[in-house]
Design goal:
By secondary structure, this protein is an alpha+beta fold. It contains six helices and ten strands. The protein has a single domain, classed as Heat Shock Protein 90 (2-Layer Sandwich).
Length: about 300
């Protein structure tokens, strides 16, 4: 029994290690000479996964009126006139020189019942520098937890509980920049996590922007975030239980912060984990230009 417990603890420690490696990786910048290196996961086709990665993403067929008992909620379409950003939503445009295409994966280990699924955008067309590298980075981040399973099963064998999902959104796009947000969740033997991972790309240079450099973090911004979050989200325990210094740390730390553009403004926030909960919280800064670092 002791040996089994030690093996399980070592396995969980390895998972936490890989998550820390992922979170600490600076998805900030791709240059012509170097770009973010991914953790060396197994090659596709290895291990016990059934399925292919990636699949082409097919747009779901439209619902036939009257085919359901209740009509679906109207999809949120963000606008600059909104008081704040309501919820994650795609803001894909078709009037630009480039376009967004979607790929998805749906994997299952028949021996353990483990599953991983996801959908993510890829850039196509136009004249974007280093497009192949950018697409590979997006793919790598969007499939991170599906690839992590290979390592996890190596430690846990067939007695494993594993479910992961990564849903991508294009929250903003124009000719100069694009914001991509991955909403991710996973469960591993009682351990679970929900988080957002944001990627902002300068399309003129082909570089991923430094999330920490998009806005100047200050006590004034932290206070603004707290007030806006209260109006926008209501009571959020993770925010209420932090003092101003802790809140500023979470907003500015590259391992926890969330930053992405939307048609409404700049959305900022952070991922958090407490003793009894995990999640993320963001708030809208409409007049974010006043907080942009001076060059």
């Amino acid at each position: 029994m002791i040996i089994v417990m030690i093996t399980v603890l070592i396995g969980l420690a390895m998972i936490l290690f890989f998550l820390l490696v992922r979170d600490s990786m600076n998805a900030a910048r791709i240059t012509e000479n170097s770009w973010q290196e991914a953790v060396p996961f197994p090659e596709q086709g290895e291990g016990e996964w059934y399925g292919r990665l990636p699949y082409e993403y097919d747009v779901p067929e439209e619902t036939v009126p009257g085919s359901e008992e209740t009509a679906p909620e109207e999809a949120y379409i963000p606008s600059a006139d909104d008081e704040y950003y309501v919820t994650l939503a795609n803001a894909v445009r078709e009037d630009l020189s480039y376009r967004v295409e979607w790929e998805e994966y749906d994997l299952r280990d028949e021996e353990t019942g483990a599953t991983a699924s996801g959908r993510y955008p890829q850039l196509s067309g136009g004249n974007i520098p280093q497009m192949d590298q950018l697409n590979e980075l997006i793919r790598s981040e969007a499939t991170y937890f599906s690839n992590l399973y290979e390592y996890y099963r190596g430690w846990q064998g067939e007695n494993v509980v594993y479910r992961a999902e990564s849903i991508g959104y294009v929250t903003y796009m124009d000719e100069e920049r694009i914001s991509i947000v991955l909403e991710e969740s996973y469960e591993m033997d009682g351990q679970s996590r929900i988080s957002l991972y944001s990627i902002n790309v300068d399309l003129l240079s082909g570089e991923v922007m430094d999330n920490g450099g998009l806005i100047e973090y200050s006590p004034q911004l932290a206070e603004r975030f707290r007030d806006q979050s209260s109006r926008q989200n209501g009571y959020v325990e993770a925010v209420e239980n932090m003092n101003d210094e802790q809140l500023l740390d979470f907003l500015s730390d590259e391992n926890t912060n969330i930053v992405f553009y939307t048609p409404v403004g700049l959305e900022i926030g952070f991922n958090y984990t407490t003793n009894d909960s995990t999640g993320w919280v963001t708030a809208t800064i409409k007049d974010y230009d006043r907080y942009v670092p001076k060059v």
